[in-house]
Model the fold of this input.
Amino acid sequence: QLQASGGGSVQAGGSLRLSCAASKSIFTFNVMGWYRQAPGKQRELVARISASGTTNYADSVKGRFTISRDNAQNTVSLQMNSLNVEDTAVYYCAAKRAGTTNYLYWGQGTQVTVSS
Done:
């Protein structure tokens, strides 16, 4: 129901764009988020976007990452610029109902590796 794509390997300073395709039943009225989990670290929320387009970012990615959604295509994207080695992680897209705490729907994860 959530299919992430676009991961890969890039050198520090480079860019990648992640995309996540969702079924309409999940995408509509849902908050879409991107999480990441680096080896040995807890999963963290990177960015999220509401159905109306309101965005929030983790401090570590502000000014470098941009989350967007295409309501016609039921997709959410994460444009990642100025990548550094600390951005290396498995990235997951997720969805939750507005006004709730827990993300109920998760994609399979896509690996992002940034080398120095």
